[in-house]
Amino acid sequence: MKNSLYKCIFTAFIFSTIFGLFVYSSNSPLGPSYGSDNAMYLTMGTALKNGYRPYLDIFDHKGPFLFLFQWIPQVFSSGYSTTAIFIQEVIFLFLSLCILGFLSVRYLKMKSPLWIQLIYLGVISSLVSGGNLCEEYSNLFSIISIFFALRYEDDVERKCIWSCFIPIGACFAISFLTRANNGLPIAFFFLGLLLYNKNFSSLCRMILAFVIGVLIISLPIIIWLISHRALYASFQASILHNFLYSETVGPYVNGRLKQLLTTDYGLLSILLFLFSIVGALCIRKKRPVFSIGMIMFAAGSGIAAYISHKYYLHYLVLGVPMAVIGIILVISAVPFRYAKPALVATSCFCLIWTIYQGYLANQLRIQDRSGINQYVEDAQRLTAHIPLNELNSVYPYRVEPKWYVVADILPSYKYYFLQEILADSNPEIMDEIVEYFNKTPPKWVVIYNENRTFSPPYDIRIQEIFHRLYTTVDTAGDYQLLHLNPLL
Prior knowledge:
Helix content is 66%, strand content 4%. The protein contains 20 helices and 4 strands. The radius of gyration is 24 Å and the shape is globular.
């Protein structure tokens, strides 16, 4: 077991580092591509480092843990550090691979941790979309929950209820507070573990332990939010707005059934679900508790993937941990003489697929980087017009999020990205933005050139404000810099 543990740590370190360099292209030390959501989060983390309050001064409809995951790396840097984010991503992946490898040897009776690690990388390589997304971080806590569930089932006398279900409750709280949707797999998994238990006393202890785990994580976060007077704003953004966001439908987005049956997103979600279910059926006699948990975890992941009318591939990352365990269990269930060749073939395919996805991600990164020097030059040309004492009164409006990163600028108002799209979910947001411009207009605004069209288009009130209050100072590349009319 000790040799397997050392091997598990070694392979996890090698795999996570190489995978990160090429697949986590948004923050890769090879030359980050920044991406879209990642650039938003870089701005969020840097803003928090500079004293902005979560939700009140810098907005997102994710949970407070995502703010923390973006803030902590920037604390150890000068801000806008892609390297700090990359290190954090690699640490999370390293821990995920370590725990997967260990549980595969300890509880799934695999001889080597290598196989499950390769399969996990093969599956997520198609889904992480450049990296630094909330689903990626939540996966670690799903894997920890799976580990403790297996440990609980192996304890015949059920003496480890507290030591297993307090961590599972804590993992649920972290995932839920990263994004509410992300907590669904662990919540359903926990319910599945409860279903098999017929002992009322044991059932109560499991629930109480889970609640204690939730409170251990939630209470410090609540205190942190209260200290910033952001508790209600957090609830409003991460729960109420997140719900409204999930109900909005873009002009080219399929309905749920059509998405499920006719797209790659649907096919992949079906495959992840089936691997989990078939894997559960393979061990229903040996591990009846865990098999029910597997089915419920798959159900929670499926709901998380389709609760919204928007279908981004990284939503499917949540279902990967249990699907990978399902693949291992399906292979283990085939006749002995075929099991090892099937395992080797599957792992080799996943290795080749990961390399291929790494190549594609790296090519896209190189393509995105090819114009970055000119992009930086254009941003610097515009910011050169802004006096240093007025850099806190700059509001880039509906620009590419990476503009903040390359210009090293923080927004002067909390709604710093996709303003009309945010308002599509909650029209009150646009009312707040209009009020901000009318009461305390920023001295400088950066927007796209006038020939750029948006869907949805600029709010008519915003267009009127730009024409009434601002004068164009300069244009560089795709952007123009507006200055508040000096007589106002």
